[in-house]
């Protein structure tokens, strides 16, 4: 069993109780207005200051990110099917560029061949090709 | 010669001598009230605030005091309520800095410049702070202030049997805590 504690490790300022007794008349005259504990007042001030700082930090951190997202083009993820279609189109055109002869690959070239055939006879064409 | 509780009650119930009775009442009980408060709120600055508010509550309540319960019991009950209210307000105003009563009071113990206990005494106080609220109140009143179970029962509104069990449990927990290291 624990023995009864006799000494006291909690201390008080010198003459605390005498000073407190002097405050009693003031306590009586001020009794209509309850005195709030100092530590609570400080805690409220700290909480308000912390809230304001938090708001400012949040604004500085997140506003530029939000603006950047707002100004950037809309981006979205391609589905596998969409990605496959685009890839296949690219491959198709790349492949056709290689296997289709350039001279007949466009309407303009065909027109040019026909025009020359109409305007020039076969000997002239052969002569030009030999040059 | 020290004035009796009965004489103080007679003074405070007479409007002409109410202030004198109040002064005598505080002269007689202020130290005991202070130490009761100090053991609940731990730090001197907090105890000073709470004692002051307790005095205000006592002054305002003098007209309603009917001497049905003992004067001392009535004063103690006010001081306990004010102390617990003070802790509650402290917790509320530091909501995300300190998350519970134990942490709050351990911090108070750590930072209180008017605590001069050695390592063993500090550990004992930590053990007391870590007790559940009711056990802590009972332990302080019984161990440090040597109040009778009947008195504690009136102050806390708890049966004597429950108080004895609380005190017994508190001692066991403190002993276990002190043996841990």
Structural notes for this entry:
- The complex is a heterodimer of chains A (131) and B (181).
- With 131 residues, chain A is mainly α.
- Chain A has helices at residues 16-29, 38-71, 80-99, 107-119, 122-130.
- In chain A, 69% of the residues lie in helices and 0% in strands.
- The N and C termini of chain A lie far apart (125 Å).
- Chain B contains nine helices and no strands.
- At the A-B interface, helix 1 and helix 2 of A face helix 2, helix 3, helix 4, helix 6 and helix 9 of B.
Brief descriptors of the model:
A: 131 residues, mainly alpha, 5 helices, rod-shaped, B: 181 residues
Total helix count of chain A?
5
Radius of gyration of chain B: 17 Å
Q: Helix segment count of chain B?
A: 9
| Major sheet size, sense and barrel closure of chain B | none
- Identify low-pLDDT runs of chain B: none
**Class by SSE composition of chain B:** mainly alpha
> Which regions of chain A have little confidence, pLDDT < 50, spanning 5+ residues?
95-105
- DSSP strand content of chain A: under 5%
Radius of gyration of chain A: 47 Å
């Amino acid at each position: 069993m624990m023995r009864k504690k006799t000494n006291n490790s909690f201390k008080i300022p010198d003459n605390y109780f005498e000073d407190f007794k002097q405050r009693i008349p003031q306590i009586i005259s001020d009794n209509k207005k309850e005195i709030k504990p100092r530590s609570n007042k400080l805690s409220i001030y700290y909480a308000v200051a912390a809230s304001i700082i938090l708001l400012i930090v949040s604004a500085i951190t997140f506003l530029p990110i939000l603006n950047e997202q707002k100004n950037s083009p809309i981006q979205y993820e391609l589905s596998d099917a969409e990605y496959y279609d685009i890839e296949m189109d690219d491959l198709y055109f790349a492949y056709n560029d290689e296997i289709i002869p350039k001279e007949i690959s466009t309407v303009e070239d065909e027109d040019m061949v026909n025009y020359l055939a109409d305007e020039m006879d076969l000997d002239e064409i052969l002569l030009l090709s030999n040059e | 010669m020290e004035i009796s509780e009965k004489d103080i009650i007679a003074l405070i119930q007479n409007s002409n001598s109410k202030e004198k009775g109040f002064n005598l009442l505080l002269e007689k009980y202020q130290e005991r009230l202070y130490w009761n408060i100090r053991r609940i709120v731990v730090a001197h600055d907090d105890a000073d605030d709470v004692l002051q508010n307790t005095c205000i509550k006592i002054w305002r309540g003098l007209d309603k005091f009917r001497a049905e319960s003992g004067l001392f019991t009535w004063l103690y009950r006010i001081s306990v309520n004010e102390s617990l209210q003070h802790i509650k307000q402290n917790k509320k105003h530091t909501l995300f800095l300190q998350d519970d009563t134990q942490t709050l009071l351990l911090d108070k113990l750590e930072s209180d410049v008017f605590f001069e206990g050695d390592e063993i005494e500090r550990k004992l106080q930590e053990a007391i702070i870590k007790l559940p609220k009711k056990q802590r109140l009972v332990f302080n009143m019984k161990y440090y202030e040597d109040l009778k179970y009947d008195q504690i029962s009136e102050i806390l509104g708890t049966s004597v049997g429950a108080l004895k069990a609380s005190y017994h449990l508190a001692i066991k927990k403190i002993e276990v805590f002190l043996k841990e290291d």
